[in-house]
Amino acid sequence: MTARTGELGSIILERGKRGNFRRAVIVILIMAALILYVGGKVRIVRLGYQIEALEREKRELERANRALLIEASSLTSPARIEDLATKHLGMVMPPKENIVVVRRKAATQ
After folding, report:
1. Cα 98 from chain centroid?
2. Is residue 1 part of a domain?
3. Rounded to an integer, what distance in angstroms lies between the CA atom of residue 48 and that of residue 94?
4. Domain range enclosing 43
């Protein structure tokens, strides 16, 4: 009877080693899955912050672009250019007989 008990004891011991190994593998797999899940969530949050920063920068650049367009339109207005030419550069309007109107030809293909 003792020989059978020893065999049973060794079988139980072997099953225990297998069980511990399986448990360790399962725990490692669960930890790896959790790490991957948390890593993905962290990446999503970081990308969200980057998107928010880029949208803020886009709004600032659009505001600056509008201001520059307004400034460009005021600087290139014909009335302003004429005023600068006559007052600051001493230019005068040419007489009507010296004005030549040039018309563009329609593009022929």
Report:
1. 57
2. no
3. 62
4. 8-91
Instruction: Please write the tens of the pLDDT for every residue from 1-41.
Output: 444 444 444 444 445 677 888 999 999 999 999 999 999 99
- How many other C-beta atoms can be found within 10 angstroms of the C-beta atom of residue 85? 13
Number of folded domains in the chain?
1
Q: Is residue 14 part of a domain?
A: yes
Q: Residue 19, Cα to own-chain centre: how many angstroms?
A: 49
Say if 108 falls within a structural domain.
Answer: no
What's the chain's length in residues? 109
Q: How is residue 76 annotated by DSSP?
A: T
In a domain, 99, yes or no: no
Q: Does the model's pTM come out above 0.85? A: no
